[in-house]
Amino acid sequence: MSNQAPFPTLAPDLFVSPQISRQDILAAAAAGVQTIICNRPDGEEPGQPSFDQIRHWAAEAGIRHVIHQPMLMPQIDAAAAAQFAKHLADNPAPALAYCRSGTRSSFLWAMGQAAQGADPRQLVQTAAAAGIDLTAALPRLQEAQA
């Protein structure tokens, strides 16, 4: 991987991003990203690339592990966070997770980390350092904490 990460970092092997483009995928591939996780439903807003288009661009760039786990914030619970963590564990790192703003992807990661006993306040700070505001999700992270 290059010394300069092209995307904000949540964990050593996890980047987060708002909606990605073909150029972003090329940058991800150049940075060594091996897995892309899409947390965005198709058709969420006009003009967004479909998951199939993202998968096609990723294949062109040499990224073979592309996962669709579409979520809306109210749907994110312990089971969804566990599935996200399983995607990370079962696929090669580093990974790039994205949604419309990066918030859902970050929240899925944080919920999984909280369930493993991580400090919810530290998770909110880590997300903030990546440009994601999870302050409103702190109570849910505290509930998820093991």
Would you spell out the secondary-structure blueprint of this structure?
Blueprint: E1 9-11, E2 14-17, H1 22-30, E3 35-38, H2 51-61, E4 65-68, H3 78-90, E5 95-98, H4 103-115, H5 120-129, H6 138-144
Parallel strand pairs: 2-5, 3-4, 3-5
Antiparallel strand pairs: 1-2
Domain Beta-lactamase hydrolase-like protein phosphatase-like: 8-115
Protein name: TIGR01244 family protein
GO molecular function: hydrolase activity
Write a compact overview of the structure shown.
This protein is α/β, with parallel strands linked by helices. The chain is built from six helices and five strands, in the order E-E-H-E-H-E-H-E-H-H-H.
Q: Into how many domains do the coordinates divide?
A: 1
User: What is the fold-level CATH name, i.e. the topology?
Assistant: Protein-Tyrosine Phosphatase, Chain A
Number of helices: 6
Broad shape: globular
Output the radius of gyration: 14 Å
Helix content: 40-55%
Strand order of the largest sheet: 1-2-5-3-4
Low-confidence region ranges: none
CATH architectural arrangement: Alpha-Beta Complex
How far apart, in Å, are the first and last alpha carbons? 33 Å
In terms of DSSP E residues, the strand content is 5-15%
Instruction: Just give the CATH class.
Output: Alpha Beta
The helix/strand class is: alpha/beta
The overall pLDDT average reads 95
